[in-house]
Amino acid sequence: MLHSLHMNAVFPGSFDPITNGHMDVLARAAKIFDHVTVTVMHNARKQGRHLFTLEERLDILRAATSHLPNVSVDSFGGLLVDYMQQQNKGIIVRGLRAVSDYEYELQIAHLNRQLGEVETVFIMAATRWSFVSSSMAREIASYQGDISSMVPFASAEALRRKFAPALNPAAPE
C-alpha cells in the first residue's frame, strides 16, 4: 500500500476528452498524494483545435472523477508554472505510455523545473492503456466505433452526443 507524501499535485492536460489511460494515472496519483487537481490547460491561440469546449471538458472531467474524493477539477490559461505558484503546489503528475512520451515529457519537466522550481512525477500508464489516446478515441467515435473500453462513461457519452448530429442530419424542408 502506498502512503501519502502529504503533498498536493496537479495533473495537467488538454483532456479532449479524458481516457481510461488518464484515469489510470489519476487514480494511482490519488493514492500517492493527499489531493490531485486535474487541470485543463487552455491556450487562446489553440482555440478551435479541440473537439470539446473548455466547459465541456471540465464537465466531462467532473463526471469522470466524481468517485475520487481527493480529486478536483480546474482550468488555467497561462504557463503551468504560473498556475503552480498561484495554487501553491510543487508537484506535477504526468502519465507516460511509451518511451517516445518520455523524451518530450523530460524536456517539459526540465523547463518547468527551471522556470518555476516545480518537480514532475511520472506515472507509467498500465500496459492495457498504452495505446489509448484522446485523438484515437475521437477518431474511432467519429465513425461510430465502440470506444466504451477506452474512455470513461462521461467521455463516451459526450463523444456520442458530439457526433450524433452527423448520424441524424435534419430532414430537408
UniProtKB/TrEMBL annotation:
Swiss-Prot/TrEMBL cofactor(s): Mg(2+)
Q: Where does the record place it? A: Cytoplasm
Binding residues annotated for substrate, in chain numbering: 14, 46, 80, 94
Pfam families attached here? CTP_transf_like
Give site residues, Transition state stabilizer.
Answer: 22
- List of residues binding ATP: 14-15, 22, 95-97, 105, 129-135
Gene Ontology molecular function: any one: pantetheine-phosphate adenylyltransferase activity
Q: How does it assemble?
A: Homohexamer.
Which PANTHER family does the record cross-reference, listed alphabetically?
PHOSPHOPANTETHEINE ADENYLYLTRANSFERASE
> Record's family?
Belongs to the bacterial CoaD family.
In Swiss-Prot or TrEMBL terms, this protein is called Phosphopantetheine adenylyltransferase
Native organism is Deinococcus ruber
